[in-house]
Amino acid sequence: MWKYLLIGSLALVIGCSDQQDHQSPDLAVLMVWAHAGQAAERKVLEQQVKRFNSLQTEIQVQLTFIPEQSYNAQVQAAAVAGELPDMLEFDGPFLYNYVWQGHLEPLDKLLSAKLQEELLPSIQKQGHYLGKFYAVGTFDSGLGLYARRSALKDSGVQIPSGPDNAWTDDEFATVLAALASRDPDGRVLDLKLNYSGEWFTYAFSPLLQSAGGDLIDRNDYQSAEGVLNSPQSVRAMKALQHWFTRGYIDSNVDDAAFVSGRVALSWAGHWEYSRYAEALGSDLALLPLPDLGKGSRTGQGSWVWGITKHSKNPQAVVRLLEFLLQPNEVLVMAAANGAVPATRTAIARSPLYGDKEPLQLFTRQLQGGFSVPRPQTPAYPVITSAFQQAFIDIRNGGDIQNALDKAAAEIDQDIRDNKGYPQVD
Amino acid sequence: MRQPLLDSRNFTAAFMSAPALVGLLLFVAVPFLFAVALSFTNLRLGSPLPLEWMGFEQYRRIFSDPSFVRALLNNLVFVVVVVPLQTVLALVLALLLNRRFYGTTWFRTLFFMPVVFPLSLVAVVWVLIFAPGPNGMMNAFLDLVSLGSWTPRDFLHDPYFALPAIMLTSIWQGTGFQMVILLAGLQAVPAELYEAAAIDGAGRRQQFWHITLPQLRNTLIFVVLVTTILAFRLFDQVQIMTQGGPYDASTTVMFETVEAAFARQQVARGAAMTVILFLVVLLITWLQRRVARQEREVT
Amino acid sequence: MTHRLFVPMIYLCLLLFGLLFISPIGFMLAGSLKPDARVLVEAGDWRAFWPAGVTLDNYRDVFARVDFARYLLNSLFINGMIVGAGLLVNSLAGYAFARLLWRGRELLFGLVLAVMIIPLEAIAVPLFYMVSLVGWRDTYLVQILPFIANAFSVYLFYTYFIGLPRELEEAARIDGAGVLRTYFSIILPNAKPVFATVAILTFLSQWGAFLWPLMVTSSETVRPLPLAIATFHSLPPLQWGDILAFGVMMVLPILVVFLLFQRWFVRGVAHTGIKG
Question: Which fold has domain C62-275?
Answer without folding.
Answer: MetI-like fold (1.10.3720)
